[in-house]
Specification:
Blueprint: E1 2-6, H1 11-22, E2 26-31, E3 46-49, H2 52-61, E4 67-70, H3 77-82, H4 84-104, E5 109-115, H5 138-157, E6 160-166, E7 168-170, E8 173-174, E9 179-180, H6 190-199, E10 205-208, E11 220-221, E12 223-225, H7 226-239, E13 245-250, E14 256-257, H8 258-269, E15 275-278, E16 287-288, H9 293-299, H10 308-321
Parallel strand pairs: 1-2, 1-4, 2-3, 4-5, 5-6, 6-13, 7-12, 10-15, 11-16
Antiparallel strand pairs: 8-9, 11-14
């Protein structure tokens, strides 16, 4: 298929683009490089540098596109609280422009990068797709607004749409020659921060609270390998049905605590990785674990890279290649 990948110079977008190319698809990447990197666009993709809202119409206007995978977004929770306007404009308004271009040019399929942040503080874990959606920050709210927009386009305009709600994406795409992973100018994610300590560019890792109601007192998250996520996107493309908007949670269904993550990083890197306990971070739920049973049942998706040490060692391999 000829596919548009928005945000294909970013972490998840570039890895998915690489998988799509490996599977024989023709990929056009649209990215404004505001947070992405030109050299992350996989070899074999056509690259268009441009801002999503402004450029989507022109790119899709070239014709022949059979699907859009939409990753381009702002994704910093803290920033979204401080500057919500960036999220309503960069995420919601830009996605609206993309959907209008999809409609205008009759593109039949859309896969959207949604998030566990649409659920907010969970009532039950593992979290199923039927859980209430009560995002606790503008980032999650903006993604949820886009989900609602997509539902209405599927119903009214026949779009075959899928939203994939990621839990904690981690690891890197490490093949013979290709190394694609997480490298944000402002890094807030646990595993890359811990690996910065192992690499000697950060002195210690702060553990945000050890008085949570969890087995070792630190927060528990569901870390999912970025290559497993990419597998789900390919399955979503082939399972999409016209006039339907399906929503799937993507996680491993297993939680690891912050301390377990730090320990896995020590094992993989051989570095002692000093850790200091810091106050809780505002807005962090104690436990977030996905129920991905629906994705298993309907898409036939099963994550295969679920061992924490495997996830960390791929992230470490990527970090060392930089
Ligand atoms: N965390 C931490 N220290 C850090 C960064 C994160 O203790 O320097 C914790 C954070 O409180 C959360 C978990 O690690 O419980 C994962 O955080 P991350 O920002 O990677 O992802 P989130 O779950 O917020 O999407």
């Amino acid at each position: 298929m000829k596919l548009l990948v928005t945000g294909g110079a970013g972490y998840v977008g570039s890895v998915c683009a690489a998988h799509l190319i490996e599977a024989g698809h023709e990929v056009v990447v649209l990215d404004d490089l505001s947070t992405g990197h030109r050299d992350a666009v996989p070899a074999g993709a056509t690259f268009v540098e441009g801002e999503l809202g402004a450029a989507a119409g022109e790119v899709l206007g070239a014709g022949g596109f059979e699907g859009v995978l939409h990753f381009a977004a702002r994704s910093l929770v803290g920033e979204s609280v401080q500057r919500p306007e960036l999220y309503w404009d960069g995420n919601v308004v830009a996605s609206f422009r993309l959907l209008e271009a999809v409609r205008a040019h009759g593109v039949p399929r859309l896969v959207f990068s949604s998030t566990a942040a649409t659920y907010g503080e969970p009532e039950q874990v593992p979290i199923p797709e039927t859980a209430p959606t009560r995002p606790t920050n503008p980032y999650g709210a903006s993604k949820l607004a886009i989900d609602h927009m997509i539902t209405s386009y599927a119903t009214a305009h026949g779009l075959a749409a899928t939203s994939l709600r990621y839990f904690n994406v981690a690891g890197a795409h490490v093949t013979g020659t290709e190394r694609l992973g997480e490298r944000h100018a402002v890094e807030t994610h646990l595993i890359p921060l811990v690996l910065q300590v192992a690499a000697g560019t950060r002195e210690s890792i702060s553990i945000y609270g050890e008085d949570w109601p969890t087995p070792d007192g630190t927060c528990v998250r569901d870390y999912i390998h970025v290559d497993d996520l990419a597998d789900a996107h390919l399955l979503a493309l082939t399972h999409a049905t016209g006039s339907r908007h399906d929503v799937y949670n993507l996680g491993s269904g297993h939680g690891f605590s912050v301390r377990e993550v730090v320990e896995a990083c020590r094992t993989v890197t051989g570095h002692p990785i000093p850790a200091v306990v810091a106050p809780r971070r505002a807005g962090d739920p104690a436990v977030l674990v996905a129920s991905s049973e629906l994705a298993a049942e309907r898409l036939g998706w099963k994550p295969s890279r679920t061992e924490l040490e495997r996830i960390v060692s791929d992230a470490w391999e990527f970090a060392r290649s930089r």
